[in-house]
Amino acid sequence: MSSPRFAFFGNHELSAIFRGRSVPIELADGAIKSGMPWVPTNVCLSASNTIPPDNPFGPMGETRLMPDPKRRITLPKREGRPAMDVYLADITEPDGSFWEACGRSQLKRALKDLEAAGYKLKVGFEHELYINGLTEISAPAYSLPGSRAVAELASEVLDTLATAGAGLDQFMSEFGQHQFEVSSPVRGALKGADEAVFTREVIRDAALARGLRATFAPKPDLSQAGSGVHIHMSLWDTHGAPVTGAHDAPTPVAGAFAAGILRQIEAVMAYTAPTPNSYDRIAPSSWVGAFNCMGVKNREAAIRFVPRAADKDGNNPAASMEYRLTDGSANPYLTLAALIRAGLAGIGDQLATPVGVDQDPATLSDEERAARGIRRVPSSLAQVLDAAEPLAAAWFGETFWRAYRSVRRNEINDAAKSADYGAQLARVI
Ligand code: GLU
Ligand code: MG
Q1: How far apart are the CA of 413 and the centre of ligand 1, in A?
Q2: Among 87, 184, 220, 412, which one is least packed by beta carbons within 10 Å?
Q3: How far apart are CA 324 and CA 287, in angstroms?
């Protein structure tokens, strides 16, 4: 690999686009030390680069892109393009202090509050994606030819992720034609979200270099399977002991965390399913999790509890709660921050573990669902924004909410103006 000529410093902003500045490599150290000026309104751009007319920043103000020197990846040299160092950055106030509209900073803050309550969160991200432009016409789902179609790209992705100390546990062919799934190793929540950003960018970059286009959009083609992001969450105490599962069931604390999320699922979805295209994916009986319930190994529940092997005391040290109602149009930092905010409230209120659902909730009658407190999750972005509003200032602050709400409303307008919004989003997400 030849040496990088430029370093790029980016932040994964409110429309889940990684935007930033690049500087010649010899200026990188200075940029890391002092940060770079950044226009506040930039975090409010939509996926198709429109500016919300009601965003709180307008032409005014100044923030700073503050790189995290520990989060660097090196993209390989390609025909016509030198190698490039890419750093993740927070957006801060000019003096380096917390700025509400930065998702990565919001996650750090939520993790501090979770830790003050006695817990740490680990996550394992699974991303589904399509790779458009492959010449193989039909490889059966999950098949060897399906995997071989992208084996060369996948190997390069592994090599590139390794430059950041990251990797993948799987790169497999998924159900849809030219749909794939990548699973990332379990990490502390911040590192997991950082590596999710690297994974998306590296796969997009490797695809583009081959004349292909990778897309993490939730439903690029209405006639094909959707692409979800599934997040396996586990809680750990501050001594590093796992506290998520015992006797093949959630522990009381994990149950309360899950119950808190399910109680406020509509508000949580404002962050985890944030584009109109997210709601093209979320449908009952399509393995998405369109009901606010939890079930052991149930892929139609918003949270699938996965116990994995028990130890000799009956504990399930590798248990996880898989949150299924998110996708690649969501900012992973805000997604985790919202899950923590709702889950932490569930722990605070000592909510009871949700009663497990062991069938597709769509097959229950309306009366049975009502009796068990199971709700169909909303089917539009407008509905979840209304649900998020009353909680937003307490979760993330007033300025954050004014910015975020303007971005999401603008996305609704962008979608209404486009004849083929899913495909449009799939070109950038
Ligand atoms: N593609 C499905 C989704 O949109 C998930 C399929 C699976 O369980 O892997 O979430
Ligand atoms: Mg899958």
Answers
A1: 28
A2: 412
A3: 9
For the chain, how big is the Rg over CA atoms in Å?
A: 21
Atom of ligand 1 nearest to the CA of 299: 8
Which of 99, 131, 153 lies at the terminal end of a domain, its last residue?
A: 99
Which pTM does this prediction carry?
Answer: 0.96
pLDDT, tens digit, for every residue of 154-210? 999 999 999 999 999 999 999 999 999 999 999 999 999 999 999 999 999 999 999
* pLDDT tens readout for residues 374-385: 999 999 999 999
pLDDT digits (tens, 9 = 90+) for 42-58: 999 998 899 999 999 98
Instruction: List pLDDT tens digits, range 48-86.
Output: 899 999 999 988 889 999 999 999 999 999 887 889 999
Nearest Cα residue to atom 5 of ligand 1? 287
Q: Do 255 and 369 reside in the same domain of the chain? A: yes
d(CA 376, CA 262): 11
- Shared domain for 11 and 91, answered yes or no, is yes
402 located within any domain:
no
Residue 1's pLDDT is 55
**Distance in Å, CA 181 to ligand 2 centroid:** 6
CB of 250 shorter than 6 A to ligand 1: no
Q: Is the CB of residue 281 below 6 angstroms from any atom belonging to ligand 1? A: yes
Burial class (CB in 10 A: 0-12, 13-18, 19+), 75: buried
Distance 187 CA to ligand 1 centre (A): 22
Domain boundary among 75, 99, 123: 99
CA of residue 300 to ligand 2 center, whole Å: 13
CATH number for the domain including 196? 3.30.590.10
Q: Which ligand is nearest to the CA of 176?
A: 1
Helix, strand, coil distribution of the chain in percent, nearest 5: 35, 25, 40
Q: Please tell me the total count of domains within the chain.
A: 2
Q: How many residues does the chain have?
A: 429
Give the H/E segment covering residue 37: strand 36-38
1 occurs within a structural domain: no
Measured in degrees and rounded to the nearest 5, phi and psi for residue 180 equal: -135, 165
Contact partners, residue 317, CB within 8 Å, separation at least 6: 242, 245, 311
Residues 413 and 359 grouped into a single domain: yes
Same domain, 152 and 203: yes
